[in-house]
Amino acid sequence: MNKQIDLQIPADSEVIIGILNNSDSVLKRLYLAYFPMVLQLILNNNGNEDDAKDVYQEAIIVLYNKVKRGDFELSSKLKTYIYSICRRLWLKRLKQLNRYGGDIKDFQEYLPVEDEIEKHQDRDMQLNKMENALKLLGEPCKTIMEDFYMHSKSMQEICERFGYTNADNAKTQKYKCLQRLKKLFFQQ
To answer: What rounded mean pLDDT belongs to the chain?
Structure first.
């Protein structure tokens, strides 16, 4: 027996506000609301349910990150935006798997969102490279970088933590560490 889910599709503005407020219930409703549309797209175009779940998850992450950054402007229905991202992600995956026949069967209107996906993937790649460079950096540089850039600690706090004679010495050390980090980052 199929269990009926009370699915009320959230308004576009409700989704944006829900993401900004870290609302789990809005995200759950968003997942349920548009997944069938993405599932149909993927099934109709050489994919399976797992593919659809992966693509949908990635699209929601793109939306979530864009909203959280504060530069998201919705110029269409949210449904169209999500479909467009999923469509682009699936086309890219089909090309990678050499299963792209040159056409895709659409049943929804969509927007060109190539730049969105490319920027998101480039940013993820850069963050991974930075994470690897930080791991290779070693101490005390790794902690100095994290304290200053991630934990917003002042040079005076860093000076006291590491026992430098003054904040200028800590600043010089931070500069040397930053140069090493850049070198490690660009060697990858």
So the answer is: 80
